[in-house]
Every structure is written in C-alpha cells, then in structure tokens.
Amino acid sequence: MGITVSQLTGVLGARIDGLDLGPDMNPAEVADLRSALVAHEVVIVPGQTLSPGEQAGFSHLLGGFSPVPFVQPVPEHPEVIKVVKEASETEAFNFGGVWHSDFSFLDAPPAFTILHALDVPAVGGDTVWASMTAAHEELEPADRERLEEITCVHSASASYSPAQQELHAGLSGMDIRTSESADATREHPLLCTHPETGRRSLYFNGTYVRGLRGPGVGDGTESGAAEETGLLRWLHDFTTHIRFTCRHRWSNGDVVLWDNRSTQHLALNDYPGQRRELHRTTVAGTEPAR
Ligand code: SIN
User: Fold this and answer.
1) Of 11, 44, 186, 233, which sits most exposed with the smallest number of CB within 10 A?
2) pLDDT at position 11
3) In angstroms, what is the span from residue 127 Cα to ligand 1's centroid?
4) If you take atom 2 of ligand 1, which residue's CA is the nearest one?
5) Mind giving me the DSSP string for 6-25?
6) Which CATH fold topology does 4-283 show?
C-alpha cells in the first residue's frame, strides 16, 4: 500500500497517510517522505507512537544529527529535546514563540526539524509556518535584484544571551542555559538556493537575523543604519504575511516535519491552563548558499 499526500493549502503543507514512521522504514518509504517534505516544506504524519530512541533513529534516516545549543536534551537521549509548557505556567514565554528558522545562527543550520506531539491542548498551541519560497516568488524583480546583494548577520543573542535567562525561567520542564556564546555572529546570504530542490527562497527570520550587510545597508553610516532598520522591518512583515502561511492544530501522535531551509515558523501561546509537550529532533543541513 502506498502513501497518500494531501496538500493542506495552495502554498505549503501536506498531510501524509499510510506511513508508519520509525527507524526501520524501508528506503523507498524514506525517499517518498523526503521528496514530499522538500516539495511541500511541511508535512504532517498523524497517528505515530515514537519513543525518544525511535524518534532519534527515524531522524537518522533523513540525515545526521544537528547540534542543539542552549537547550538540554532528554536524559539518555542526547539528540532529543522536550518542548514543554505546564498547565500552571500561564505567564511563561513559550519555546519557539516568535518567528524563526531553527538555529539559523549556526554555520550549517539544521535542514529539517521533527516534532512529535505527546500531550497537546484540546484547543490552542497551534504551530504556523511561512513559506520562504512563496515569499521569494512574490518579490518584485527590482527588489529581488537588490536583495541578491544582501547578507544577513545571524546571532542567537536575542534569545540565548545571559540577559535572556529570565525569559526562559518560566518553563520548569525545559532546561535552557543561556551563554555568552550566543553573541557570536554568522553571515548567510539573504537569497539562497535550496540544495535539494534548486528553488530559491528568502533565508530570513526576524529572531536570529540581527543585522544586514550590503550596498547602502549596515555600512556604519547613519543612512546605512536607517536603511538596515527599515529593511529588517520590511523583511519581517513581508516574509510572515498570512498569504504565505499554513497552520496546524495538533493532536497527540502527530509527527510534523519541516524544512528549515525554506520556511519560518512560530508556536502560538494561546492555551493558558493547558499542558503542551512535544519531542523534537533536528537533522543536519549544509551551509546556506546563494
Ligand atoms: C520550535 O520552534 O521548535 C517549537 C515549535 C512548536 O512547539 O510548535
């Protein structure tokens, strides 16, 4: 029996039925999953029951382990992190609660993220993704030409520098350790080519992109600084516009995989008084390239 892939929107996202995820999947199934994932950018596979070890083993079928800085893993499973907010943590800032692409501040950010829902709210706690290939397709030719010259300065400082430790203190089920190393910066091109599909996209997210470099931008002059601030704001607003998004309401057992090279995402924090727990693994990627 083959798999069924059903598109969820006209832009990105698909649901896959007929797949049993795990470390023992056969190569043809893995190839089908991978091609659906890179084509649709986000895929939802309902009805799974993966232990942390099985989730790590399954992730390896898509590529090597991608390092997870700042967040301590599940004991005994160094590749798995628990994303959890307790019902009592009504005031807490939720993990992943701002638009981002996972760990884009790394030299080689993760290609894919895999999130497995274990205990999700009856309502609320949805995740939203935005397609950066769809955003790229809608750029005006003159804007595209200009943005081609721009490089983004990525850093984890706004989330994981020691000044942000308080931000994470409200999550008792997660062990997030901020560090001075979060202030390190890494530049990646703004317009990138996907290494598997060859499609171009905007490799941008307002959380980890802390600056821009290019003609007339971030060049140390006052006008360069004003241009940089304006362009950062424009890029955030443009790339996260609702027309480029899809939104998933979680059920226990769902496994969602997404491609960080062509999407940004955001976890909604609209479930006070309810618990939410998912397990996350990340699959190694390569250095983003023009
Ligand atoms: C994340 O950003 O990895 C977490 C997303 C979520 O909890 O929905």
Assistant:
1) 233
2) 98
3) 7
4) 96
5) EESSSSS-EEEES---STT-
6) Double-stranded beta-helix (3.60.130)
